Amino acid sequence: MIRSELIQKIADDNPHLYQRDVERIVNTIFEEIIGAMADGDRVELRGFGAFSVKKRDARTGRNPRTGDAVEVEEKHVPFFKTGKLLRDRLNGIEPE
């Protein structure tokens, strides 16, 4: 599902809301998650999962084409850990 499909699904399920308002709500949620992660915070959505940022140290990598050594800088990458409810649902386990 892409963002526009999510917006359309929410708008269809909530006919009392205008689509432009649903779009604003969804965009605000994503912006808040991105902002929190950019600040180094963890974002947890109960039953769904948690978004966090992991630091990858600088290292020496290899250029796959030439095999030459290449210095790779330190970087921060997004990380998602699924919540128990989501994991159970994906595996066909009924919630308790």
UniProtKB/TrEMBL annotation:
Matches recorded under SUPFAM superfamilies: IHF-like DNA-binding proteins
Matches recorded under Gene3D superfamilies: IHF-like DNA-binding proteins
A GO molecular-function descriptor: structural constituent of chromatin
InterPro entries xref list: Hist_DNA-bd, Histone-like_DNA-bd_CS, IHF-like_DNA-bd_dom_sf, IHF_beta
Key words of the record: DNA recombination, DNA-binding, Transcription, Transcription regulation, Translation regulation
Entry GO terms, CC: chromosome; cytosol
Pfam families xrefs: Bac_DNA_binding
Any one GO biological process: regulation of DNA-templated transcription
Family recorded in the similarity comment: Belongs to the bacterial histone-like protein family.
Assembly and binders: Heterodimer of an alpha and a beta chain.
Job description of the protein: This protein is one of the two subunits of integration host factor, a specific DNA-binding protein that functions in genetic recombination as well as in transcriptional and translational control.
Name of this protein: Integration host factor subunit beta
Organism: Actibacterium mucosum KCTC 23349
Name of the encoding gene: ihfB
